[in-house]
């Protein structure tokens, strides 16, 4: 049988699998990160989005399983950037992406100055899209401010940098964010973060299901797949080819990963499904993806990446 090769690239590094963990899932503690480093069929690991200071995150309950996905209001619980920066600087088992989140534009600059001054040379991802911080908007919905922050960042930052985006829902917004992002030497965009400020209602108790923000939280899992695919596709059509796309959102099967790659994703992250199923999900997704490729006669991801056909 012809060998199926799932190799992908992260910067100029060849990795054996296109699968990543979605930031936030099983990547907060040393132990969780070490688990990811040992996980077969995971091409690279992404840290929990780190902030300048350690954060407890939002009060519990802050994650709730839904039949077709999940809703969360985690509020960026993390051990602070110093821990994650140290982890990725020393990591030697698997390629890593350092995710950082800023609570303000000033924080973003401070964080990236610290990374610039450090020994870490690997990829960093600036999360511009957390929907769960009380009183703070998702920066990437403000095109002008995103432009200002990136202009300041790239006045001093010379290491590999990507951004994590929220989902967009209007073609004009895809044009606008792409026009901003194309001005900068970004390595990648990661799309999508959860669909912000959804609400779930427990009709038994007549209550919301997460505590912070009156129950409003980020929605993920199967139900966001069409939104995720649209964002991967629309951004791939608009961004400079040098800006790679990491597709995140709604992946529960190998077919979903295939669809992300067909829309143009270089790598594919899995979040909610790993919470539901555990790290073994990557083996199943890999087997399913290979099965689809074999049935179609594809032997590498580049055989179909970005080749979605229109009617
Ligand atoms: C969170 O910690 O609230 C989720 C992370 C994110 O949405 O960026």
TrEMBL record:
E.C. numbers: 1.3.98.1
Functional pathway: Pyrimidine metabolism; UMP biosynthesis via de novo pathway
Keywords associated with the record: Cytoplasm, Flavoprotein, FMN, Oxidoreductase, Pyrimidine biosynthesis
Primary subcellular site in the record, as a coarse category: cytoplasm
UniProt cross-references to InterPro entries, sorted A to Z: Aldolase_TIM (IPR013785), DHO_dehydrogenase (IPR050074), DHOD_1A (IPR033886), Dihydro_DH_chainA_dom2 (IPR023359), Dihydroorotate_DH_1_2 (IPR012135), Dihydroorotate_DH_cat (IPR005720), Dihydroorotate_DH_CS (IPR001295)
Places the protein is found: Cytoplasm
Domain Dihydroorotate dehydrogenase catalytic: 6-293
UniProt keyword Isomerase present: no
Molecular-function GO terms, alphabetical: dihydroorotate dehydrogenase (fumarate) activity
Taxonomy, superkingdom: Bacteria
Catalytic activity, reaction form: (S)-dihydroorotate + fumarate = orotate + succinate
GO cellular component: cytoplasm
The keyword Cytoplasm appears for this protein: yes
Cofactor: FMN
GO biological process: 'de novo' pyrimidine nucleobase biosynthetic process; 'de novo' UMP biosynthetic process
Subunit-level organization: Homodimer.
Protein name: dihydroorotate oxidase (fumarate)
Organism in which the protein naturally occurs: Fructobacillus ficulneus
Gene coding for it: pydA
